[in-house]
Automatic annotation (TrEMBL):
Record-linked Pfam families: MipA
Domain of life: Bacteria
Keyword Signal: yes
The entry's keywords: Cell outer membrane, Membrane, Signal
A single cellular component GO annotation: cell outer membrane
The keyword DNA damage appears for this protein: no
Signal peptide: 1-29
Subcellular location: Cell outer membrane
Name of the featured protein: MipA/OmpV family protein
InterPro entries: MipA (IPR010583)
Length: 251
């Protein structure tokens, strides 16, 4: 537990350092930056057992000076117009306390360490790599996304299709149940080793500029998981739908 706290503090210090450094970049000093504040709304269902759909309203901040950028909990650097590298604060994949099942509540939280993220953009196609940095999880994912413009007028609409290849370790972290966890439930939930579970995601994005500074971005997404995911005793379905909306004001 103490080691986990130390690591979380280290991740936070690293993110704070990158944010601080980005604000003092020469481009920012020259007034070539874009800083935005706003609100982020999220509504999503879950593939895990007995977890209700969740709605959240969170503060949102973004900054981009042409080299360094910050988007929520992601801090990164533009190496070129085609290549970005970033660090993402640890994710929580599944919190058992969100489930109404008393046995599932006895399981461990599914979470990642700090993540390295690399994106390569080639026209309408983007390739991505996400790799765990903590050393606790030997997990990674590879993605490819094709984005097409669908409408351009008073507002903009784009459609995207993404395929995400997840490593076996990542799938095990999200969907497996250890022997220790199974014993904790008295054997009600069986131990399970997950196979690799990949994802196919469809996204429809609406971009509505109300002025030169105020913009609303709404994303509708639907994710299909490999059928094998429902073999996990903590998963009840292989599809997930979500809506995110960001209302931001650029200074």
């Amino acid at each position: 537990m103490m080691l986990e706290k130390v690591k979380n503090v280290s991740y936070a210090k690293l993110l704070c350092f990158l944010v601080f450094f980005s604000f003092y970049d020469e481009a920012f000093a020259a007034g070539e930056s874009a800083f935005s504040l706003g609100a982020l709304g999220i509504y999503s269902n879950s593939i895990y057992q007995d977890v209700d759909a969740e709605a959240q309203l969170l503060p949102y901040a973004a900054f981009d000076n042409g080299r360094f950028f910050v988007k929520g909990l992601i801090v990164g650097y533009h190496f070129s117009p085609y290549l970005d590298a970033a660090i993402k604060y640890p994710d929580t994949y599944f919190d058992p306390d969100d489930s109404s099942d008393k046995n599932i509540q006895r399981l461990n939280e599914r979470e990642s360490g700090a993540l390295a993220k690399i994106d390569l953009k080639l026209g309408m196609v983007k390739f991505g790599l996400i790799q765990d940095l903590s050393g606790d999880f030997d997990e990674y994912s590879l993605s490819s996304t094709v984005t097409l413009p669908l409408y351009k007028g008073a507002f903009f609409v784009t459609g995207a299709v993404s395929y995400v290849y997840n490593s076996r370790a990542l799938s095990e972290n999200k969907y497996s149940v250890s022997d220790t966890e199974s014993l904790r439930t008295g054997g009600t939930i069986n131990a399970y080793d997950s196979a690799r579970v990949n994802e196919l995601r469809y996204t429809l994005s609406f971009i509505q500029p109300f002025s030169q500074r105020l913009t609303l971005i709404t994303n509708l997404s639907h994710t299909n998981y490999d059928d094998v995911v429902v073999k996990s005793p903590i998963v009840e379905k292989d599809k997930k739908t979500g809506i995110t909306a960001i209302l931001s004001y650029r200074f």
